[in-house]
Amino acid sequence: MTTVNVSDRPAHGLKADVLVLGTLDADGSAVLAAGHGLPTAAAGHLAQQLAALQATGAAEEVVTVAGVPEVSAGRVILTGLGKGSPDTASFGHEVLRRAAGAAVRSAKNATKVVLALPAAGAESVAAVAEGAALGSYRYAGVRGETAQRGSRGRRGSKDAPTVSAVTVVASDARDKAVKAAAVRAGVLAEAKAYARDLVNTPPNKLFPQSFTDSVKERSTTGKGTVTVTVLDEKALRKGGFGGIVGVGQGSVNPPRLVTLTWAPAKAKQSVALVGKGITFDSGGLCIKPPASMLTMKSDMAGAAAVAATVFAAAELGLPVKVTGYLCLAENMPSGTAQRPSDVVTMRNGTTVEILDTDAEGRMVLGDGLCLAAESGPDAIVDIATLTGAQMVALGARVAGIMSNDDGFRERVRAAANASGEAAWPMPLPADLRSQLDSSVADLAHKGERWGGMLTAGLFLKEFVPQGTAWAHVDIAGPSFNEGSPWGYTPKGGTGFGVGTLLTLVETYAA
Ligand code: BES
Ligand code: MN
Ligand code: ZN
To answer: Is 362 a catalytic residue?
Structure first.
């Protein structure tokens, strides 16, 4: 875990391994951004270095300089903010978040990092702190003893020092709102790290019961009291959760429906969060080709974001009731697996004709939505790596948001945007609903290929009572980074959704 501090002391005098400063792109050459507060000699030296290294100040550019006169830190990392006026107010928060993240990611063998970027005011200080803390994330992995010790003298990555403390320098560091923003940034980064860890954990280590064990353990270590209740396969059968039971029945690792509750006495409003938690999606009998299966340990990223958010809300003591529903199952082919043409009965009595066992997410979520609705929350959000169609439509970095309420969809989108998680509104066209008609059941469980993200959303809508504000967030692309790291986003699990959900929940605290 990375601790987050704020300081109003001059950055060059602070003890650290690395000092991070911002650069601007001024017509193709880098200049130091405001906010560094360096003595003239240090600033002059850095200006020379930037010119000699032909730095441009572009976003994602990171330049390291060692031995800068009058700077206590041994290394200075100059991180690009791109074009923009040195007027601090003109920087978007996401620019700061990414620049801080890129800098900290590149700070190898460093434990303490100080950042003096053009940040003033709670929101921009929070953005720098979040980016820095998120950039410090490393997945420890599962490494054997020999790899650890390094028979060839190589240090295992578990041993390599990682950034454990970040200090954001800001003139208003003593301001109450700035201090609170730094605390929130630390909690948010920690929550995202938890979600990332869950996603990155190999599927033979993370299955429904071990996911459940992880949240149970976390519920005993945090600040606020999160209660955890678990429905096992027997209770799920008895409770009529035919969607989760059907998806899970092909696996030797039985399904679970886990409810996490943060219910402070002062709460006036309640938000329910429902997460798709397929710990591995092989496709079931409608098995996926091998290449498509490679990222399918991440098919529980929605549930990971939900769990992390409930814990973060508790840690911050938010005066909102937040209930998380983790719909956990492993989608596997076997002699006990569900078949295309099976008809299952969902928690609310709706019968569904299974057409493709690879459309399993909507089945576990349908049951989760029913359970969430039963306690009458003010709003329900589900979040899921639901469709490949989301990636076709919006790519790997932008989530799709669908809703039964335009105002609520905009509220969720605004929360996503404010937290640096890109999301875009998508429709639930009534015209497509007939694609879900079945000749043998109440509902067919998928429509045509075209518009697959939307028909999946329309399917989920069937399990939300009319009049309850509900949004569905499809994070198939942004939940898992198959490419190189960028900004504060590592390879693998990204933690996408935690920022959106936490920010949304906070809007119910007011
Ligand atoms: N988990 C997948 C969706 C997915 C695909 C997530 C790629 C992340 C990356 C989901 O369960 C799935 O298989 N969806 C099918 C639905 C289809 C059978 C109606 C799809 O999108 O192809
Ligand atoms: Mn699937
Ligand atoms: Zn899936």
So the answer is: yes
DSSP state, residue 268: -
Annotated catalytic residue 288: yes
Task: Determine the topology of domain 3-191 in CATH.
Answer: Leucine Aminopeptidase, subunit E; domain 1 (3.40.220)
Q: Which residues contact 452 (CB under 8 A, 6 or more apart)?
A: 387, 388, 389, 392, 446
The ranges assigned to domains in the chain are 3-191, 206-509
- For residue 281, the ligand 1 atom closest to its alpha carbon is 1
The residue type found at 126 is A
- Exactly one of 138, 179, 237, 288 is catalytic; which is it? 288
What is the average pLDDT across 211-228?
94
Higher pLDDT, 155 or 436: 436
179 Cα to the center of ligand 3, angstroms:
40
Q: What is the DSSP letter of 346?
A: -
From the list 9, 28, 21, 144, the residue with the least C-alpha distance to 83 is: 28
User: How far is 81 from 32, CA to CA, in rounded Å?
Assistant: 10
474 lines ligand 1 (CB under 6 A): no
Fold match between domain 3-191 and domain 206-509:
no
And the tokens for 443? 């509902």
The Å distance, Cα 283 to ligand 3 centre, comes to 7
- Spell out the alpha helix ranges (H) of 170-232: 176-200, 208-221
Separation CA 442–CA 51 (nearest Å): 69
Domain 206-509 has CATH 3.90.1150.10: no
Helix (H, G, I), strand (E, B) or coil at 288: coil
- Specify the pLDDT at position 1: 84
The confidence score (pLDDT) of residue 153 equals 46
Q: What is the pLDDT of residue 146?
A: 64
Instruction: Report whether 501 contacts 381 (CB < 8 A).
Output: yes
pTM assigned to the model = 0.97
Cβ proximity of 202 and 279 under 8 Å: no
